[in-house]
Amino acid sequence: MKRNASAVWRGDLKKGKGNFTAQSGVFSNTPFSFGTRFENQPGTNPEELIAAALASCYSMALSAALTADKHEVIEITTQASLSLEQVEGQWTITQIQLDTKAKVPGIKEDKFQEIAKKTKENCPVSRALSMPITLNAALV
User: Concatenated DSSP letters for 36-76?
Assistant: First the structure.
């Protein structure tokens, strides 16, 4: 299975503009710029997409792991907060914090935490990323 996306950038870093398109068509010529990436202007950026990918992957993987352990999953909500910082003069993704809340009736807290931690280590997007990923998982 392969997934594809493409990006085009025109101009210099600060004044230029880019757009990207994903294979599914959900993103089609979606704009991004220096301002959306480094100045908090409205719009998307690569780091936001990485955070969305991890939050989505983790939620799905946690649901699969809980279901495989014979637990009913009502809802899983995950927020991924990515830190982009200057490290030795280079913009670097230094960490991602996952905050997950799950509605899983009847599961014991220690079992939930065990499955949540193992899922963080084994979700495909987590395994693709080389920075530290921390997890705060809670039952609701």
Answer: HHHS--SS--HHHHHHHHHHHHHHHHHHHHHHHTT----EE
How many other C-beta atoms lie within 10 A of the C-beta of residue 16?
Answer: 11
In single-letter form, the type of residue at position 127 comes to R
Q: Do residue 23 and residue 53 come from a single domain? A: no
Q: Give the domain CATH number at 125.
A: 3.30.300.20
3-state secondary structure (DSSP) of residue 49: helix
Question: For 30-69, how does the pLDDT look when each residue is reduced to its tens digit (9 = 90+)?
Answer: 999 999 999 989 999 999 999 999 999 999 999 999 999 9
| Rounded Cα–Cα distance for residues 82 and 24 (Å) | 24
Is there a contact between 101 and 58 (Cβ–Cβ < 8 Å)? no
In terms of residue numbers, what domain contains 19? Answer: 5-38
